[in-house]
Amino acid sequence: MEAFQHQLFTLIGGLICFYVLVKCIRFMKYIFPHMWSAVPQTFFRSMGEWAVVTGAGEGLGRAYSFELAKRGLNVVMISRTLEKLQRAATEVEQTTGQKVKIIQADFTKNSVYENIEKNLQGLDIGVLVNNVGMLHNPLPCRFLNGSDIDESLVNCNIISVTKMTKMILKQMESRRKGLILNLSSGLGTFPCPLYTMYSASKAFISTFSKALQAEYKAKGIIIQVVTPYGVSTPMTRYQKPDLITKTAEEFVSESLQYVTFGDEVFGCLAHEVLARVLQFVPLWVFHSNRFQETVLHSFTNYLKKMWRNPNP
């Protein structure tokens, strides 16, 4: 009996070591993406002539528009604020020499899709970036202390992804190629208190994208959910970049190297490491009242500091 137990524990230990080794080897692809599975310069252009980017006026959407244009794609930039959209489009066009088409659309409204589809007719669309999104509350707060619930967040964060995907996936399926990147959030990887509505909407994007990839992978279409943590954008009030918080340009440039790495990526090496560290933190820690009170207290002190010194 003792010998059997010894062999059993040895086998279990060996399997665990083998599992960890495989995970470590697979993680190496994020450290050396060019060696693991280099994405050729012509990859994105081979998908089609045009890329469509939502929420393209600023932040990540603007950065994706620039990067995809640098890689040889013409870009359709869609956003709500016409002035920001026109300014960003001019910069992309003048910097890259690619064609740029703009469509003004407020994704909090459910009536914008007929006009979008009309303006996209006849375009050979190879890449779709569903980037547009909004926070229900700009600062962390408990559900009942937040803004009144309306359809805006659901329309912007959920309906926009499903409608835009269905609109463009049809032609990708007929051509048997295409790339769809759906922007989620690290806060959507677990039920996140104080950002309840936002967390839930981003969890939908993750599940939707992975299920859709299972349906259409065999048809030559890549559907990937990109799940960033900290990125310095208007949504994060241009938080100062550091080891974890990336500029939009840094994050997008790195994340486009990972488009062949599976149905979900965290977008950059720092966020890939952070995601794996957080997997070891029990969920009850984030759900504890002490943790929530600490977060609320920290943000209160941060705002007081900003009010006293608006230009640190």
Task: Explain the overall architecture.
- By secondary structure, the protein is α/β, with parallel strands linked by helices.
- The protein has a single domain, classed as NAD(P)-binding Rossmann-like Domain (Rossmann fold, 3-Layer(aba) Sandwich), CATH 3.40.50.720.
- Helix content is 52%, strand content 13%.
- It has twelve helices and nine strands.
- Strands 3-2-1-4-5-6-9 form a seven-stranded parallel sheet, sandwiched between helices.
- Helix 4 links the parallel strand 1 and strand 2.
- The longest helix has 30 residues.
- It is globular, with a radius of gyration of 21 Å.
- The termini are far apart.
- The mean pLDDT is 89.
Outline the secondary-structure elements.
Layout: H1 2-31, H2 33-37, H3 43-47, E1 50-54, H4 59-70, E2 74-79, H5 82-96, E3 100-104, H6 113-120, E4 125-130, H7 152-175, E5 178-183, H8 196-216, E6 221-226, E7 231-232, E8 246-247, H9 248-255, E9 264-265, H10 269-278, H11 283-287, H12 289-308
Parallel strand pairs: 1-2, 1-4, 2-3, 4-5, 5-6, 6-9, 7-8
Helix pairs in contact: 4-5, 4-9, 7-8
In short:
With 312 residues, the chain is α/β, with parallel strands linked by helices. Helix content is 52%, strand content 13%.
